[in-house]
Amino acid sequence: MDPELEAFVPFLPHTDLSDPVTAREVFAERAAARPVPDLSDLEIEDRTVPADPDVPVRIYRPHGARGAVVWMHGGGFVFGDVETEHPWAARLAQGSGAVVVSVGYRRAPENPYPAALDDVYAVLGWLAGHAADLGIDPDRIAVGGHSAGANLAAGTALRARDQQGPAIRFQLLNEPGLDDRQDTWSQRNFTDTPWQNREKVTLAWRHYLAGRSATPYAAPAREEDLSGLPPAYLAAAEFDPLRDEIIGYALRLLRAGVPVELHQWPGTFHGSQAIMSAAVSQRQIAELCAALRRAVTD
């Protein structure tokens, strides 16, 4: 493990997904203590997207932005919201020059699949329909997220393709959870890795699916035909149960003719880019921003 990250492992907060309410409180408390970057160069606005039910979003608009990303926070489908995602959404907007629409999707287990996906898809449709009002090019809209949020981005890309929905220019998938079957080598063997382990992944899927059979929109790795999807950037952490399904999905996208950039970060664990003092974390965040900038801004 990267020594700068390893030093922080004993201080990681404990989030027990078997107790969603407490997990949310612990995560929110920890997130509130993180530094927020200087936001003077961003226009930030909270809005509500009309849907059933309405979906809260927070919009980060850099000066002169032409492209945008519908961005989803992580949290195992259970915790996280636009407040906990605030520092990261702001950094993404500043680093990429793109409008970031951070989505406050409904969370499991109170709202299992497909509630969160429906929320994200509604925001995508709203953004495409209001692109001119936001001063962005409707042909420069991406979807992206971290962990469970990246799952929702990948599922949204599949749904938009199948339903002839809004055009998506790019997928920014940071450490996505893609496969509920948990049968890869990393899923079977990483039972005690920091922050994320096999047990947590199992609980996340249990909350999200709530006993339902997984469809490809819920678990994108189950989709047999990946052709016709938008170009994608995928990032994986070395010591993460999700690692091998991410790499496998990237390879399948490539075989289906989808342009892919894949980055497997050595010495990292799931979510370790939140440890901003580590050089590798700074590189990870810079790469995410650069990938989005190349896709929708340049």
UniProtKB/TrEMBL annotation:
<dbReference type="GO" id="GO:0016787">
    <property type="term" value="F:hydrolase activity"/>
</dbReference>
<feature type="domain" description="Alpha/beta hydrolase fold-3">
    <location>
        <begin position="69"/>
        <end position="272"/>
    </location>
</feature>
<protein>
    <submittedName>
        <fullName>Alpha/beta hydrolase</fullName>
    </submittedName>
</protein>
<keyword id="KW-0378">Hydrolase</keyword>
<dbReference type="Pfam" id="PF07859">
    <property type="entry name" value="Abhydrolase_3"/>
</dbReference>
<dbReference type="InterPro" id="IPR013094">
    <property type="entry name" value="AB_hydrolase_3"/>
</dbReference>
<dbReference type="InterPro" id="IPR050300">
    <property type="entry name" value="GDXG_lipolytic_enzyme"/>
</dbReference>
<dbReference type="InterPro" id="IPR029058">
    <property type="entry name" value="AB_hydrolase_fold"/>
</dbReference>
